[in-house]
Amino acid sequence: RPLPPTDDQGDWEAPTFDSGGSSAEDDDNLRVVEGIAGLIGNTPMVRIPSLSEATGCDIYAKAEFLNPGGSPKDRVALTMVETAEQTGKLIPHTECCLFEGTVGSTGISLAMIARAKGYRCHIVIPDDQAQEKYALLTRLNATVEKVRPVSIVNSNHFVNVARCRAREYSQTASSVTITSSPSESHHSHRTHVALRGHHQGYFADQFENPANFAAHFNQTGPEIYRQMRGQLDAFVAGAGTGGTLAGIARYLKPRIPQLKVVLADPTGSGLFHRIKHGVLYTPLEAEGTRRRHQVDTVVEGIGINRITRNFAKVLEPRSSNASTPAAALPWVDDAVHVTDEQAVLMARYLVSTEGLFVGSSSAVNCVAAVRTAQQLGPGHTIVTVLCDSGQRHLTKFWNDEYLQALNLPTSFPDSLAFLD
Ligand code: PMP
Q1: Prediction pTM value
Q2: Which residues make Cβ contacts (< 8 Å) with residue 101, sequence separation at least 6?
């Protein structure tokens, strides 16, 4: 990894470009691909100089926002669709329709892949997300159904509605009428679908679908390992479905014995307490009363109050050997709680020091990466993920009026003093 020295630019020479390059690395950089699916994955790893210098560690981030759909969910969406195709649940260029409940990123990736492969796409999404997401989804020609954010135990939760719509679509012989909840009647959609050929609704189910974990275990984890040549001390990430954290942790940990895996958890999420104290902060039974959506949080995409099948992969035992002490935390070693204020200031710090314009979950990850660096001490290497760009958050996380209304800061710090 030819990196310039951080304190002395003197003797560093830029790598020369060999137009006849024949190494595998050159081939990777100069790849020519087939269709949009070929653009998914193989994202670069970026060292973040300001965070590295401030902590005395090397802090790297996997630039997942450079996927064509703008997030690591491209990998997940493609893997879910391809797995469904392999098992005959989806047939391209038929009347098959992808259904998903999502806070945005997975919907955008699925809508993009649906266009490329010839599927319909119906996305159910809470109505409190950044406007950019709805705009992108509709421009990608997905049907967008907004619902009120409610508990997962409620049948109107976006995941439950999406599951139900998929079933209805498959069952409906000649037409299907889709109407949003009465309180959202101005957003309601009416879709008539003629029956031609294969008429199958496929509920992608990113929270429970093992293809989500598989995408990160088979792609993102190995890419990180190769990019870092196995030299990293900690991997830090938040969890929305848990697919990223679990897939990468389970690929890397057996190969890097000293690796610390750290969960980055935003305000309102129950996972921090689950990792630190062994219990979910908000037990499922209490979901109706204490819920993440009732907490005014500006972070989108990460933080949950239930153990999804994908997150559960980090709670599975490390070994079937009963004599091995059953670690309380088999695959995740620690958790860092990140406040909204810290996330906002980190995002603004990254702009003022790096010109790096990221979304809220990336900012949470970077706060937790710095905290992990501070705990490990100088000389360690930490890898985290930049999930999406700030461009997808202009009307919310990057909107000054919105932040001011929540008493959150809008300054652009040039030091990490806000983490003291
Ligand atoms: N960042 C963003 C912007 C997301 O949308 C998501 C997924 N909802 C995540 C991070 C978390 O990824 P995962 O679902 O793999 O835990």
Answers
A1: 0.86
A2: 124, 125, 157, 158, 159, 160, 161, 162, 163
